[in-house]
Each structure stands twice: as C-alpha cells, then as structure tokens.
Amino acid sequence: MNNAHLHLVVNHWPIIFPVVGVIVLLIGIFTKSEVSKRNAYIIFILGALSSVLAMATGEGAEEAVENLPGVAESLIKTHEEAAELFAGLSYVLGGAALLSLVSSFREFAINKFMPFVVLIIAAGALYFATEAGRTGGEIRHTEIRSGATIQNGNNSGDSENTKNGESDD
C-alpha cells in the first residue's frame, strides 16, 4: 500500500464524520438528549482527527500522481488549497466539539447554546468539504471536471482545447 492508496482510504472520513455528526446532533437537539449530543461531539472530534490523517497522506499522494497522464499540477494545487481550508475548519469544529463535550459533562452555562454553535461551524465546514472533495475527485476523474467534454471516448484533461473543438492529435 503506497501513500496514494492510503490517502484514498482516509480522505473520505473527514467528510463523512461531520455529516453523521450533524445528523446525530440534530437528533440530540430535537430530542433534548445529552447522550446524543455528546455522541455527536465525539464524532466531530474523530472527524478532526481524520483530517490530520488525510492531510498527512496528501503530500505522498501528490508525489504518486503528479506525473501521471491527464493529471495537471493546477488541479493538484487547487485541491491542496481547498483541503487546507477544509482541514482548518475541521480542526476548529473538533475544538468546538471538545469544548462542548467538556461543558456538557461539567454542566457549564454555555452548554445550552453550544450545540447550535457546533452546528453552525459544522455547516460551514461541510460547505468547504464539498469543495475539497470535488477538487480532489477532479484530479483523476476527468468526467467531473467543469467544462470537460469527452471526444471519441477519450479525454485529455485539457478542457479548453476540447471546448473549442481542437485536438492534440
């Protein structure tokens, strides 16, 4: 298993954990269940930790694919920037979830509004998660690149030439 494979294994976790966390947190808010809220906080913390893994394996994945046909350095750079922004928000979400978990157990006064603060941070993080996921997918999945068209069952990854009907042949 190489770094690219490891990155592909872990890179979905930072996106999946917050989605599940939001669902569990909403259940906790609507049912007024502290147990559900605490479980959501733990899920958000796991999401932040998985972001660390995804970021740690990203550089190795870049080295593994940067010289492959159809992979543009600009796509990698765009994904890297989106992933860094999302990871930062994921860490903030994990920190807020940790603070919320502690305040839940200690019954601090802030515990009443912390689920809503965490929910807002999670919504923001998930917005940027979609961008990180989309840009990462575009690196190897030419069919989802914006403006890309497939000609003769082949896509060179150069959407500008294919849009104008030009070919590299």
UniProtKB/TrEMBL annotation:
<protein>
    <recommendedName>
        <fullName>DUF2231 domain-containing protein</fullName>
    </recommendedName>
</protein>
<keyword id="KW-0472">Membrane</keyword>
<feature type="transmembrane region" description="Helical">
    <location>
        <begin position="113"/>
        <end position="130"/>
    </location>
</feature>
<feature type="compositionally biased region" description="Polar residues">
    <location>
        <begin position="148"/>
        <end position="159"/>
    </location>
</feature>
<feature type="compositionally biased region" description="Basic and acidic residues">
    <location>
        <begin position="160"/>
        <end position="169"/>
    </location>
</feature>
<feature type="transmembrane region" description="Helical">
    <location>
        <begin position="40"/>
        <end position="58"/>
    </location>
</feature>
<feature type="transmembrane region" description="Helical">
    <location>
        <begin position="82"/>
        <end position="101"/>
    </location>
</feature>
<feature type="transmembrane region" description="Helical">
    <location>
        <begin position="12"/>
        <end position="31"/>
    </location>
</feature>
<keyword id="KW-0812">Transmembrane</keyword>
<feature type="region of interest" description="Disordered">
    <location>
        <begin position="148"/>
        <end position="169"/>
    </location>
</feature>
<keyword id="KW-1133">Transmembrane helix</keyword>
